[in-house]
Amino acid sequence: MSRWSAETLRIALAPGEAALLRTRGTPTSRVLAAGERDAASLLPLLDEALADPDWHGRRVEVVLSQHFVRHVLTPPPDKALSRAEERALAGASLRNIYGDEALQWNVQVLSQPPQHGLVGAAMDASFIQQLDALLARHGFREVMIRPLASVAAQHLPGKFAGWWALAEPGWLTLFGSANGIWHHLGGQPVGDDWVDALPDLIEREALSAPQTLPSAVWIQAVGTGPIPKPAAGDWQILPHDPDTRGALALAGI
Length: 253
Hints:
Distance between the termini: 22 Å
Order of helices and strands: EEEHEEHEEHEHEEEHEEH
Mean pLDDT: 93
Strand order of the largest sheet: 3-2-1-4-8
Low-confidence stretches: none
Strand content: 25-35%
Structural class: alpha/beta
Helix content: 25-40%
CATH topology of the largest domain: Nucleotidyltransferase, domain 5
């Protein structure tokens, strides 16, 4: 590997683990383990790893585990909003759920038509600032920090409609969509038996969705190992590598 690379470095951060990955040419990766599960504990490990000139470059994309992200679907604004107004609406919706803690979060927004709610993704603002500064110190000039869901959604079929279950070790994010619009979302910690629990979970979530959604379910597993397809129902399992686990799977998605 050259001491400075023009290709994008992919970094993934998950509870207790970080992974660095370059995929062009000869694939090169490194996994870093932390003793704690909070996001901040990964920064010293990342700082040390990036001191190696072999990882230097101009562009970096950071994928954050859904463990570190909180989503919200806002009420419909019923009119077109500026980007600042969209972030303000998403922030207010997060505060209604999480209280003043949400004031400390950085919010990204996915726009939808005004008659539908906006999708907000929130991450700890202090952590994002520290991460951004760390990457700048190591020479990265083009930095993108994205939730796993934002990256994984690119693998959904073009006319996706139904339920999307995004699973990673210890966490499940569930999105409901119809006619190109996100109508429902949620996330929760799960155990290793999450596949068995998924039908009941979707049934419960469907009861609180604002409209009836298609029954098809697309399962996207990232770093969980092999997954069995549920015996009944309209289930589709998106391609995944069952042999790659943890943060390295997030980096490679």
